[in-house]
Amino acid sequence: MFSKICVALLAATSVFSGTDARQVRKSEVHSRQVEAAKRWRTSGQILKRATPQNITFKNPKASQFFVDGTTIPEVDFDIGPSWSGLMPISANQNETRKLFFWFFPPGPEGSLDDLIFWTNGGPGCSSLEGLLQENGPFQWGVGQAKPVQNEFSWTNLSSVLWVEQPVGTGFSQGTPNIRNEDDLAEQLVGFMQQFLEVFSELKNKKLYLTGESYAGTYVPYIANYIYTHPTALPLSLQGIWIADPVLGWDVVQEQIPAVAFVHKYEHVFAFNQTFMKQLDQLAITCNYTGYIEKHATYPPKGLLPLPGRSTSAERGCDLWDVIFDAAFRINPAFNIYRIFDTYPVLWDVLGFPGSFPQIQLAPLYFDRDDVKKAIHAPTNVNWAECSDINVFPHGDASLPSSFTVLPNVIEKSNRSVIVHGLADFILIAEGARIVIQNMTWGGKQGFQTPIANDSFLVDGVGALGNAHTERGLTYLEVALSGHMVPQYSPLAAFQSMQYLMGFRATP
Ligand SMILES: *[C@@H]1O[C@H](CO)[C@@H](O)[C@H](O)[C@H]1NC(C)=O
Ligand SMILES: *[C@@H]1O[C@H](CO)[C@@H](O)[C@H](O)[C@H]1NC(C)=O
Ligand SMILES: *[C@@H]1O[C@H](CO)[C@@H](O)[C@H](O)[C@H]1NC(C)=O
Ligand SMILES: *[C@@H]1O[C@H](CO)[C@@H](O)[C@H](O)[C@H]1NC(C)=O
Ligand SMILES: *[C@@H]1O[C@H](CO)[C@@H](O)[C@H](O)[C@H]1NC(C)=O
Ligand SMILES: *[C@@H]1O[C@H](CO)[C@@H](O)[C@H](O)[C@H]1NC(C)=O
Ligand SMILES: *[C@@H]1O[C@H](CO)[C@@H](O)[C@H](O)[C@H]1NC(C)=O
Ligand SMILES: *[C@@H]1O[C@H](CO)[C@@H](O)[C@H](O)[C@H]1NC(C)=O
Q1: Which residue's CA is the nearest one to ligand 5's atom 14?
Q2: What value does the CA radius of gyration of the chain take, rounded to a whole number of Å?
Q3: DSSP class of residue 132?
Q4: Which is higher by pLDDT, 423 or 142?
Q5: How many CB atoms lie within 10 A of CB 120?
Q6: What residues are in contact with ligand 2 under a 6 Å CB criterion?
Q7: How many angstroms is it from 156 CA to the middle of ligand 3?
Q8: Where in the chain is the domain with CATH 3.40.50.1820?
Q9: For residue range 179-189, what is the model confidence (pLDDT) as tens digits?
Q10: 143: alpha, beta or left, given left = phi > 0 and alpha = psi -120 to 50?
Q11: How far away, in angstroms, is 290 Cα from ligand 5 center?
């Protein structure tokens, strides 16, 4: 295959004699992209799937939430039936706290036996971002002129429930009062109970909890709550899927691997040599250099030490911020969520392009009155992708999930998947490896054998990163993907979800 391409290129160059470069027509570039995108779409072997059927809800209250898929502003195709609105977090008649949800039944190819729950992170960021830009049935991504159908919608897998949580996020109503992740889980489960009263046909489905970023804290705590309160929900929790998750200390997920990350992508950061030498010197002083080679071994030699005394960074050792500042000097469009972005910053209908500045002025898509009306959202709320108020009024008192609930969740679940974009700088994949090697589940600490390179094989693509599974935990690193894996690498995300749900045998 490779030699063929070389021959083709040689043949093409030889057509132009002397110093002429090979000519590439725009139409050729375009057709290559169309062809490659088509190859993505037609890949993905489905090993097991339930017979799809139509879903109807008998409770008359459900009809109040019905969304006509032909009435979504700016969307010029039918997104199919869905249900959305505000649902209280308890049965109390006076309950003032309500979460906003948008529920989609499975598309024609999806299973009716399953239910996927999705939450974005933050804390305080809206799951409608996930719906519109990551894994929903229609997609209006950064730089796209209008909404298009999402070929990799998770509704192709099963029913999906996007929820703006906790209280204080997006359209959700009420005053935040949670102190920690157990409070958060209790409120979310309260919401789910109310939701299942109205949409009772969804009872007894197999449940998968998914999310990204700070949802690396939310999702394991919610799963643990459900496992430790087995009668709380009439659903059968099967597993979790978390992308680029917050799992451990900042010093581990941001600082230790930061300078090595810059070296890996040296020509993307394009720092000058003097500055690189300064970074290298600081990384040595801060005990970051060589940390991974020494401590993140397979199997690990014992609990992994901190590089200093701090779980964030010692004085003068906040190298992540030093790099962050320097990156903007050279690249004003530097995107902490995907380092490959360069000038100019692309337009975003949700006003959150990469790492700002916000360039979509007003209104943001979900802040439009016509959009709010179409989806039963409160028109008196100014919607923002991430909340200005603190959804944990006094901070989140829970420890990161790898130190507490995550081991139990992996042990109780059929499958647990952690995915990580390799082009993410806000949380760095090498840091997730450190967290995993420091965690004990299923009777052992960390992975016992090394993560093989090029072991994440994506159908129709080939190796697209690294994959490893031990004792019920699957860890996937996705090449070229930024922080939001379903957005930046939808095929990889889709395939890993098929694995989570038992629709395929390997990730
Ligand atoms: C589901 O609904 C669609 C559209 O109303 C219809 O075409 C299809 O035949 C239905 N499928 C089943 C299995 O009832
Ligand atoms: C709801 O509020 C009313 C008026 O404040 C009060 O009388 C009633 O007991 C409350 N009901 C519940 C279930 O809390
Ligand atoms: C998702 O479903 C749509 C509509 O049936 C289909 O066109 C598309 O190919 C499906 N995508 C995948 C990845 O299965
Ligand atoms: C490893 O885990 C222990 C607790 O299990 C914790 O005290 C320590 O800080 C962790 N080390 C790192 C590098 O996260
Ligand atoms: C680096 O490690 C040494 C030896 O453990 C320790 O004395 C020193 O304080 C550490 N330096 C920093 C900046 O954490
Ligand atoms: C090298 O980069 C550093 C960090 O951005 C900057 O302070 C310095 O001025 C740069 N030097 C040159 C010659 O550009
Ligand atoms: C786990 O997976 C197995 C095999 O796919 C399946 O039989 C079982 O129902 C699943 N769920 C649980 C909770 O074990
Ligand atoms: C994977 O590749 C990296 C970079 O080339 C190398 O340092 C590492 O040792 C390889 N890992 C394994 C398990 O072979």
Answers
A1: 308
A2: 23
A3: I
A4: 423
A5: 30
A6: 92-94
A7: 6
A8: 60-247+397-500
A9: 999 999 999 99
A10: left
A11: 13
User: For residue range 191-234, what is the model confidence (pLDDT) as tens digits?
Assistant: 999 999 999 999 999 999 999 999 999 999 999 999 999 999 99
Q: Which helix (H) or strand (E) holds 212?
A: strand 206-212
Q: What is the DSSP string of 151-207?
A: TT-GGGTEEEEEEE-STTSTT-BS-----SHHHHHHHHHHHHHHHHHHTGGGTT-EE
- Asked, as a colleague might, if the bond just before 305 is cis with ω within 30 of 0, I would say no
Residue 20 has pLDDT above 90, yes or no: no
> Mapping DSSP to helix (H, G, I), strand (E, B) and coil, where does residue 445 land?
strand
Q: Residue whose CA is closest, atom 9 of ligand 1? A: 54
The closest-lying atom of ligand 6 relative to the alpha carbon of residue 274 is 1
Per-residue pLDDT tens digits for 77-134: 999 999 999 999 999 999 999 999 999 999 888 888 999 999 999 999 999 999 999 9
Ligand 7 pocket mutation, candidates 226, 240, 411, 414, criterion most atoms within 8 A of CB: 414
Looking at residue 34, its pLDDT comes to: 85
38 band by pLDDT with thresholds 50, 70 and 90? confident
Ligand 6 neighbourhood includes 325 CB (under 6 angstroms): no
157-180 tens-digit pLDDT: 999 999 999 999 999 999 999 999
* 3 confidence band (pLDDT: 50, 70, 90): very low
Q: Residue 55 has what pLDDT?
A: 85
13, pLDDT greater than 50: no
Matching residue, tokens 């057709």 = 31
User: How many other C-beta atoms can be found within 10 angstroms of the C-beta atom of residue 266?
Assistant: 10
The answer to whether residues 129 and 120 touch, using CB atoms and an 8 Å cutoff, is: yes
**CA distance between the termini of the chain:** 25
Peptide linkage before 400 cis (omega within 30 of 0)? no
| Short-list 40, 23, 412, CA closest to 226 | 412
- Cβ–Cβ < 8 Å for 433, 470: no
The predicted model gives 282-300 an average pLDDT of 98
Number of residues written out for the chain: 507
Both structure tokens of 143: 């730089």
Q: Using an 8 Å Cβ cutoff, are 55 and 159 in contact?
A: yes
Ligand 5 centroid from CA 439, angstroms = 23
Report residue 1's pLDDT band, with 50, 70 and 90 as the boundaries: very low
Q: 122 by DSSP, 3-state: which?
A: coil
| 3-state SS, one letter per residue, for 260-279 | HHHHHCHHHHCCCHHHHHHH
Q: Would the pLDDT of 355 be above 70? A: no
Cα(172) to centroid(ligand 7), Å: 34
**CATH, range 60-247+397-500:** 3.40.50.1820
Tokens 């299973």 locate to: 111
435: alpha, beta or left? (left if phi > 0; alpha if psi -120 to 50):
alpha
